[in-house]
Structures
1.
Amino acid sequence: MRWSMVIDLDKCVACQGCSIACRFENNTPAVKPSEALKGRAVRWNDVFPMPINPTEVTGEYPNVQTRYLTRPCMHCDNPPCIKVCPVQATFKDEEGLVRQNYARCIGCRFCTVACPYGVRYFNWHVPEWSVETLHDFAWQNRTSLPLPATSVPAPEYANPDRIEGEGDLEGPAIRPKGVVEKCTFCVHRLQKARARAEAEGRAFRADEYVPACVQTCTGKARFFGDLDDPRSTVSLLAKSPRAFRLLEDVGTHPKVIYLREW
Amino acid sequence: MAAPLTRRQFLKLAATAGGSAAVAGGLQTLLAGGTASASGGALVTSANETIVPGVCLLCSSGCGILARVVDGHVVKLEGNPMHPINLGALCPKGQAAPELLYNPDRLTGPMKQAGARGSDNWQPISWDEAVQRVARKLSDLRAAGHPERAALMHGEARGQLRSFFEYFMQVVGSPNVISRESLNVAAAKLGVYLTQGVYDLPAYDLENSKYVLAFGASLLEAGRVPQRMVSGISYLRRGRADRGKVVVIDPRQGVSGAKADEWIPIAPGTDAALALGIAHVIIRAGLVDSDFIHNYGFGFEDFPDDAGKVLHQGFKSFVLENYDPARVEEITGVTATTISRLAGEFAGNKPAVAVLPGKGGLLNGSINGLYAAMAIHTLNGLVGSIDVRGGVLTQRYFPCVEWPALPADPAAEAGRALERVDGAGTQFPLARHAYQAVADRVLAGDSLEALFLYDANPAYEAPGGARFIEAFDKIPFVVSFASFLDESAQYADLVLPEPTFLERYQDDAIEGLGYPGVGLRQPVIPPRYDTLNTGDFLLRVAQAMGDPVAGALPWKTYDKVIQYRLRGINTDWETLKELGVWITPGYRFARRGSEKWIGEVVGRDRALAPRDGRFDFYSRELNCLIGGRTTEELNAFGLSQTGDAVFLPHHEPVTDAGDPAEFPFRLNVITLMSLGPVGAAANMPTLQEISGMTVGETWDSWLEMNPEAAKKLGLRDKDPVWVESPFGKAKTKVRLVKALRPDVVNLPYNQGHTAIGRWAKDRGVNGVALLTPASEPVSGLAAFTNTRVKVYRG
């Protein structure tokens, strides 16, 4: 199998549901406002206007067309990020997923520079969801108010799923400070779906798994499946005259395929 | 389970066990271009996991959710694929809901103000004490013969709750259950009421429409049911063989305009003129549905009065006389060519629908907004798009079991027959609710002795909200059911927190698809704190008050109330809990003129005009309500027209709040997909982080302005600015947005809180505080769009 995602920009409404579904599936922390302003927010799938500064949109009022892009990892068939990793913390698996092993990552950030899509995120801080981390302005002294009994050291709502072993830590696992993380096409969901099929004693089918962003898409703009199967939805859509890939000319061969609006 | 290796441990291990060779080996692989798998891990997941359905409440869509609960913690929400509004999808607000449930600023139990109002001197109390205090207050009011001096203001009271509040207050003896709808959806509802005779938001069969003309208020982000609109538009575009066209008419492009096939920037407050210009071309070109307008419409042609003496002007001659495209171009700024083209496309691509903004926003100005809503909806009548495939649907609801008969209780009967404290139906003849007017009327001397706030934060969300804090001083007993200490709850005497929508029972009437449906909220985990469902609380209050109140409200808990009311839906409670939703899909259209048409589709809710199944091009209901008034009286209503024009959809020039010479811009307060309409969402870090995606802002407010307008003021992108209206001023930063009319500026809603919690408080500015506090004299609508501002460097 060769996992691929198709995003129809004609159906996308730039709601950012994908972005936040990813956050809660994969335990990416909200960062404090000052860090967000520096562009250090960690959203493996980000949504933004094109061009990013609205004043640079071509055309003059009223002939102005604003565009938005939603961008997960491209899961390139020829990913530049894995070539520069000195410790093989990032790798492409046999089904084409570009994965990230936090346990091996030494935080050199070569990969964040090598990726032409900017989809790799460095953990500048200990990922904490506690009051203190997010709260970089004075918490008013309201002692008379009944406050929650426990202040939350790690989120109670963290997804417990992860991939774990000797020298291996992947997926939604809570990351230490100083490692790089990225979209995995929710590899843990794939493994869960496989485990389920195995437990039920049957063969695993490609349509048993989608990443969280695909599941939540409000405009039903996302499709996911096996590019090796010529009858799969993604294979059919990949042949659409509307299909294009980001930065096709740099030779990365992305497996995220967009359908243009027109 | 082996503990995972950390990066440090791994490096340590590598160093002690001759790991340098391993690293060198890794490098060799790298240089050889190999991609050997480095994964030796196995899946670790939860053993103890359940999936529990519910319904989201972070906007008014009411999307079905499935909560993944692991070891008693809600770790993820997904859309419920069985729920017809969202069909398995979920927007960022719903996805971020764990931050609401586990929010550190939630109130943890009932409390009373021990010091002066607003002194923040809260003392925990027990629920029993809370019940006793409220019961005693209401009993005292009844004993004093003034039960009408109790009022309940509410925001989203979903499902049976709205009706339950009304029943409870009627039993107590008060007519005062006041909905927030005068701040948002009432304008559109009244537009439909005065034409089609149904007091509700229409549903639109977008899946089968060929052409969608969406007026105002960003339908994909800020409507009554944005997720329903997204689902429908998505299908209209790429879900079927023939792609429909979507046109968005709005001074601001926004996400909806950007994602539409065409964006028509329009002068703010002139939607009525544009709709009537389109009607003009349709009529002149003979593209009307003549069966509909003649056999099932009223007042299209000129008509004689009952005595046969006076000839009244009908819609056709009125529109042909007054709204030729050249004149409409002058009013709206939309060229005559475009108007003619839109008319041709609209009438030539049936089924077509003209969509009203579900957020009143752009409609609520002066009385202008009311006529705009009528004019927009009349376009649907013109082309016969009422109750047809691809057109306007009339929302149906499950028949609920009636409430028990009100007990014989003279005190209550007298009380509930009295005038409402918001003046709806009296001061504001057309209004059903005038939420924002409560403050004015209390300050002007109306007696109110107990005020209950349910999902109501008027001090923040109503224009001129500061008046409410003053008004509270005249009300001896103020109770808030808020889950967070919001701007209004801060000044209450009792705060009796309700659990979040993930921890309580509440049903939800599904809106936006036409056919009836019920969603169910239930505690997906037990309530985290000492909170109580407001329905449960009021039932306990009723018991404490004794008969006749107690006898009329015999249920022990609110979920029993829901079960009682929903007995007619043909499913059992356990199945409803298991599925989270119950629908009878399939909308059944009514044949024109049939019994079903008259009883359900056209004229159903008319109070005064005949329920004859005729769609009013000339509003008989309005005629019954404000007909026969003198010119002076009409002028006092803000009307420039007299005679038949008053009852026909027409363009009224907007009455400005602020002198255009001093205040050159119109202020538009926009609702964002990210922060949405619910105050608590501003205290969710994830939503703050993504709030300003369209302009690259985060955790803050911004003012959107056209670059040409900014250049004239010498302002550059991101400059600090003051935004000043005659009613207040606020400092923020300006962001230049090309896709915006140069005479309009926008401020996003749901920032600038002074309370709620650590992340919401003291962040950005509240645009609503700059708006005129006036109410529209006929409809009681809050004026949201006629406030003018000036902008200068801060």
Note: Chain A has one domain: 3-54+66-134+153-259.
2.
Amino acid sequence: MAKITLNDEAQEVTLPLSLTELIKANSATPEMVSAQLNGEFVAREQYDAIAIREGDEVDILYFMGGGQSS
Amino acid sequence: MMDFTPEQIERYSRHILLQDVGVEGQEKISNGKVLVIGAGGLGAPVLLYLAAAGVGVIGVIDGDTVDLSNLQRQVIHFTPDVGKPKVISAKEKIRQINPDVKVIAHHDLFTSENAFELIRDYDFIVDGTDTFPVKFLINDACVIAGKPFSHGGILRFDGQTMTHLPQTACYRCVFHSPPPPNAVPACSQAGVLGAIAGMLGTIQAAEVLKFLTGTGELLADRLLSFNAKTMNFRTVKLHKNRQCPVCGEHPVITELKEAEQTACDLKQR
């Protein structure tokens, strides 16, 4: 098990774990989010290749439209 | 130096009382020019508060007419306004709230063709739109033209907002490109709690007033998001993305392209 911080909350995960797997495990779709790993944006094409490590801080940011239309 | 009338001094007294605003700050608000793109869920509270605050020139652009289903959250429009262009309905309310404000209404869509001309004369732009291609278009136009703007988005019980200033992270730094059509539902499909629009829109309005008066710390290089079910608010630190296609080290977006019409909106017109 490894301790990481996801969206400001402590979480325990089992390694090895890719960023893609972490996103999916949190009920999100990789194509529909943006992710920061330790404060740096990660290009979506690299989600598969990124291996989560102990102590990582991950932010998953969601697309949000809304506001105008009927 | 602006000479406020006794009525204006009274109208704006609660601003003037604020140490961080004062007469000077109110002058800056009264000299401010703000363009609000979209007179819907977000635009409604933004427009109401900017009007009440006495922003000198408020531009508003929206191609839509008021629909009965808008009234649950678009609080600048009233029941008798159904069928009326949103910008006309909004202009009428702004006039009634505050005759000091000059309103420039555009019953039109914000497109790559008119974007630069529309934003040119304004100090600050507010994104109150619903579709991702237009959100990206607003971002690109403001980044290229060096205009500060506030991004806002709401969905179901959630809201998010960030403020872009020249040299701070832009919307594309966070979200590289629009999601695939229909991947992310619009409010018209997924629904939204009406008051969420007010929560987010008033945050955007506060950012505008902070920007105009130079007060406090803007949501620049920060993305604020909240969930109204838990009432948890979260601020994520951002910084400019070197690979950003519009403001990064090697920008590939140097001119505006037509926003592809999104398939997000289920509603057939």
Note: Residues 19-25 of chain A form the longest helix (7 residues).
